[in-house]
Design brief:
Radius of gyration: 21 Å
Order of helices and strands: EHEHEHEHEHEHEHEHEHEHEHEEHHH
Number of helices: 14
């Protein structure tokens, strides 16, 4: 088998898009399938670039797998990646080496290649707007196979584009890596030791949030919980520097709240494993980076599955979109606006860690059965 993965990603970057793409392609590599991943990079490409990318994402790509175009700007990235892939596909067709499958999250590649007799799967995690909406609508009205990440997102597209036939729209949740705790135990213990040294109150119990600081992410809830629980240290991993500085400035007196900043994808599972509780404190409305688009009804956040993979108790907002993934047996669910309940649940978990660890084992079991990148890739290949 020969696969093209045509992304719309900048590699390396902090985006969940690039983490998703590189993880799927790493599974393709692990299955010893011949493939090319097309992406853009804002860094000048040297012979050692592939090694730095592999270190960043903990991947195993070779130069023949990763096809990058150097482009230091933010606009027109997807069309340029599409053109790059077009040059390669023309060359491969001349050599009588047509790809057996094209997987793409690149809107322009999906639309353009839909006119060719190629086996294409288009994946999207968001509804588009403006001119991009025109292309997305055309794709959804075509016979192309589509992947979306939640049932709610599928229903959104069916209603938005008035689709009479939705049998070619397939729902595949996001996924995470299998994490070997024993193999990483020494690194986890080192991080725990450093966190204890860093603790102003000499706390040894840690709650962690991993993700962006956009409106609706629930950071204000974490500030509230930190004030209520001085015997627990709360860590926020992620967010851009401007927002981190703003939160630090506004919460100087909360001495058990720490904004750690960004953690590279290759290290994030180790930091998650150093926590005692992992938090998903989302609000009812969650905005994307543009502060306009509400994703609360159709998101499938990567960190949810990463949390499940590390076998640490999860405390999450009770949201409709998490049904079928989180439940009372594998996590602790609290209405997003019930601050007192959040505080009570934090205290309960801390005082009943034996029970909480049984709960997290159920989440880990659910992850292994349903949400690894390996399983997700197998489901994609089944669509051919």
């Amino acid at each position: 088998m020969y696969i093209y993965y045509i992304s719309g990603s900048i590699i390396p970057s902090r985006s969940a898009n690039s983490i998703h793409v590189t993880n799927i392609c790493n599974e393709i590599f692990n299955k010893k399938i011949n493939f090319k991943l097309f992406a853009a990079t804002k860094k000048i490409i040297f012979k050692t670039s592939i090694n730095k990318i592999n270190d960043y994402y903990n991947t195993n790509f070779s130069n023949k797998n990763l096809i990058l175009i150097f482009y230091p700007f933010n606009r027109l990235i997807e069309p340029l990646i599409f053109i790059l892939s077009l040059l390669h596909i023309i060359y491969d067709l001349i050599k009588n080496k047509k790809p057996d499958l094209i997987i793409t999250r690149n809107l322009f590649a999906a639309y353009s290649y839909s006119f060719f007799k190629l086996n294409i799967i288009y994946e999207t995690h968001i509804p588009e707007t403006g001119l991009r909406l025109f292309f997305q609508k055309k794709i959804f009205k075509s016979n192309l196979k589509k992947i979306v990440i939640t049932k709610n997102l599928k229903n959104y597209f069916i209603n938005k584009y008035q689709l009479k036939n939705s049998s070619n729209i397939h729902i595949l949740s996001d996924a995470a890596r299998y994490f070997n705790y024993d193999k990483n135990k020494s690194n986890i213990l080192k991080i725990k030791e450093n966190l204890i040294k860093n603790s102003i109150n000499k706390n040894k119990f840690f709650c962690g949030y991993f993700g962006h600081l956009y409106p609706g992410s629930g950071i204000e809830k974490i500030v509230y919980l930190a004030k209520k629980n001085q015997d627990i240290d709360f860590y926020v991993f992620g967010g851009d520097k401007k927002l981190i500085l703003e939160y630090k400035k506004n919460n100087k007196i909360v001495n058990n709240l720490f904004f750690f900043g960004f953690v590279e994808p290759s290290k994030i599972y180790i930091y998650m494993s150093a926590m005692n509780i992992l938090l998903l404190p989302y609000e009812d409305k969650i905005l994307l980076k543009n502060n306009k688009t509400d994703k609360s009804n159709w998101m499938s956040p990567l960190k949810l599955f990463e949390y499940m993979s590390v076998n640490i108790p999860i405390l999450s907002s009770k949201l409709e979109v998490f049904k079928g993934i989180l439940n009372q047996n594998n996590s602790y669910l609290v209405p997003p606006d019930k601050l007192h309940d959040w505080d009570s649940k934090i205290k309960y978990i801390k005082n009943n860690m034996d029970i909480a660890k049984e709960n997290s084992k159920n989440a880990h079991r659910d992850f292994l059965d349903n949400f690894t990148w390996k399983i997700r890739l197998e489901k994609i290949i089944e669509l051919i």
